[in-house]
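This section describes the prediction task in plain terms. A model, or a person checking by hand, is given the sequence of a single protein chain and must write out its three-dimensional structure as a string of tokens. No templates, partner chains or ligands are provided. The sample shown here is typical of the held-out split.
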Amino acid sequence: MIAGMLLLGCVTLKAQEKKKKLRELSPDRPHQTESPHTVDVGHIMFETDVVNTTFYHNTVPHSATTGLFYFNLKAGIQKNMDVEVLSNALSFTRYEHQALPPTHTAFPDLTFRYKLNVLGNDSGRTSIAIMPFVTTSNFFADKWQAKTGGLFVNAEHLFGEKYEIGYTGGLTSFSIRPFFQTYELFSTVSFSYPLYKSLDHFVEVSERFNRFSEVRNNYSIDSGFTFTPTRNNQFDMGFYYFIPIRQLYIFIGTTIRI
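The expected answer:
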């Protein structure tokens, strides 16, 4: 129903924007550094990890979770605004030596985000956006409740023609009930550059600070490749490795804009 409402709104807006040149494709994924650019008015963008796997080495027994179609559905609603819905479609967890029975989940929660670009959406070398969001229960399957909130500031600067440095920082989560009793701070910096024609490479470092967790400071080293054969499609693959918890996340994904 949500996808249908977004699509209907975009079709209406698209009729008014047919002749406008689209921005370069700038999805939020595959790195953890979010894009400051919004989806063009009257268009939708579907970003997804087609498949990902997370290996947990800091728990006993060790486990691995495979996710299918973790998605971010985005719709451009104004020149410098878009709205987004994220969820993990399916995930399956298995344990080392079958120490515990395998488990699975489907659409465990929903995240609603609003992105407002305040600088450089269509021109200039520097772009900045703010992005508040809220994560809720899946109201199609469970009683609806807001679980956590968050707020990011996204920034990007272009060097030369293709070299980009990006930054995302803010609150990746804070409790709503009771309000702000717990929270997690997040920051990440990425650098991307062209390898050959439409093939790019990115490297990234991130930090999460959560004084309410067993591991207060959690860092990651990330790397991956993106291939953009057309202005409306991207393929990607890569990994994040989290330290000190020794957690490895690998993914293969794609982005489609219509």
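For orientation: The first helix runs from residue 2 to 14.
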